[in-house]
Amino acid sequence: MRIVPWRSLRLRLIVLLVLSVVCVLAAATALEIRLSTRLAERNLQERALTLAKEIDILLGSLWGRTDLRNFHHRLAELARTHRNVADIEILLPVRDQWRLLGSSGRATPTEPIALDRLAMELDQPIWQLLPGSSHLGLAVAPFHLGQRVIGAIRVKASLAEVERLANVQAQRALLLALLSVLAIAGVLGIILTRTIARPVGLLVDAMNAARAGRLDTRVQLRGSDELQQLGDHFNSMLETIARGDHEKRELVSRLSRFNDELESRVATATADIAAKNLELQRSNEQLWHVQKQLGRAERLAALGQMTAAIAHELGTPLNSVLGYTQLLAKEVTSEGGREKLSIIESQVRIMSQAIRNALDQTRTPSVERRPVAVVPLIEETLALLAPALNAKGIAVERQIDTAPATISADPRGLQQILLNILTNAVDALDPNGHIRVRAEPFVANGGPPGLRLRITDDGTGIAPHDLQHVFQPFFTTKEVGRGTGLGLTITQDITRAHGGTIRVDSEPGRGTTVDVTIAGGVAA
Predict the structure, then answer these.
(1) Candidates 3.65.10.10, 3.90.1150.10, 3.20.20.140, 3.30.450.20; correct CATH number of 5-179?
(2) What is 368-518's CATH number?
(3) pTM, entire model
């Protein structure tokens, strides 16, 4: 911070000392003038009283030997020889009045006053200022004739000369005080600059340098006064601060290196933990999928065992019934009998096929790829479901113009996917519902062309808590007796066997969309 010159310590000290000197000089000068004025007044008073006594002696010696005009002449000469005398009067009391015996004639005669009679009564001279005047004094002495007091002698003295001398002395004292102030201010300025301002400036510069960070700054002051001690203490303080700053910097550097090392270790540990967490998460996911597949496999194995047992128990009798039916058809000659036997044979075959289908569903699907015409397969599947669609008045919207002409897939598995999804859609729709079937090309990772199927209905939809279980075996939202809960499970298995994916999006009251991708492959 820059110090304004007129607010500096040096100027303040100079002003303070000068004011002190001025006050002392003023008081001394005033006292001297007062004493000198008093002394001059006293001298004037003594001269006036002495003059009155001299006149008393002179008049006493001349009384009776000169006339009245000679009195006036002698008084005028005495007044002229004394510069400060304004007038000389001699008064004689006659009965109750006063008679002017003589006068110097330089002032207008005044009326008698009580001082005249007091001087005569006391038989001694008296001095006082004239009433109503500040520059005229009056010395009254008794006028003797022999040993007897016969009148009063007045000597009027002017104080103007005393006042003039006092004014001259005051002017001289003022000039002397002014010159003294200037001299003292100059000397004090030089002394304070050398003894205070310069050392303080050095201290201030050193403080500013230290505040700017230059802790190696030192101030060198000569002498043995307090400022030199202050400089030594300042240097010692800077050395202490410099050592502390150096130690702090070393500590900060060590802390910085420690933090860097700690951050590096934490980052490494965090990366290891993240990698292990990711590996653990993947292991958990794999374990979950394995457990899921294991549970599913266990259920399917149980179903397969049960279905195989049923198929074994029913297959042999059905084969016997089918064989005897064929033998009876050869022996029966009537048309009606043969027709009935033909119905029995067809129903037995349907039952056998149903048992084989159930066994096929419990087994892991196998894919036999060969070229499949997509659009005819979709139309054929819709034709198979035509009775169910027509029974509920369901309208089917086909968006299959952009479908690939052929893909390499298992036609039986592809039709099974369509049948399962469309059957679920029919079951979920109310009468006069709508189904939209969309087919388009699908290419995964630059491989052979595949197929994307998207089947959407506007049925009842699936609740969120049920949607996550739709691919679990035996899970169904249909009424008892209307579904086994294996349709989407089998569909997912067939889709995965084709290297594809299946996703179900549904919202209660707004319908369901099933999105299936079939990866293309090489025909067997």
Answers:
(1) 3.30.450.20
(2) 3.30.565.10
(3) 0.39
Q: What is the DSSP letter of 148?
A: E
| Structure token digits, residue 232 | 């030594």
Domain residue ranges in the chain: 5-179, 368-518
pLDDT in tens, 155-212: 877 766 666 666 776 777 777 777 877 777 777 777 766 666 677 777 777 778 777 8
Helices marked H in 109-197? 114-122, 160-192
- Enumerate the β-bridge partners of residue 290: none
| Rounded (10°) CA dihedral 260, 264, 266, 268 | 180
Q: Look at residue 480 and give its three-state secondary structure.
A: coil
User: Could you say which DSSP state residue 216 is in?
Assistant: T
The rounded distance, in Å, linking the Cα atoms of 309 and 122 is 175
**Mean pLDDT along residues 49-78:** 70
How far apart (Å, rounded) are the C-alpha atoms in residues 103 and 75? 6
Strand-by-strand arrangement of the 85-94 sheet? 97-103, 85-94, 148-158, 136-145, 126-129
**What contacts 24+ positions apart, CB below 8 Å, involve 93-97?**
93/117, 93/120, 93/151
Rounded distance between C-alpha atoms, residue 521 and residue 279, angstroms: 32
Rounded to the nearest angstrom, the gap between the alpha carbon of residue 406 and the centroid of all alpha carbons in its chain is: 69
Strands 395-399 and 434-443: parallel
Sign of CA dihedral 193, 198, 204, 208: positive
Residue 132 region, left (φ>0) first, then alpha (ψ -120 to 50), else beta? left
The rounded radius of gyration (Å) of the Cα atoms in the chain is 72
- Strands (E) in 21-165, as ranges, are 85-94, 97-103, 126-129, 136-145, 148-158
User: What gap in Å lies between CA 236 and CA 242, rounded to an integer?
Assistant: 10
92: Cβ–Cβ under 8 A, 6 or more apart, which residues?
Answer: 98, 99, 101, 143, 150, 151
Report the half-sphere exposure of 434 (CA within 13 A, side-chain side): 6
Banded model confidence at residue 122, pLDDT cuts 50, 70, 90 = confident
Using DSSP's 3-state secondary structure scheme, residue 398 falls into: strand
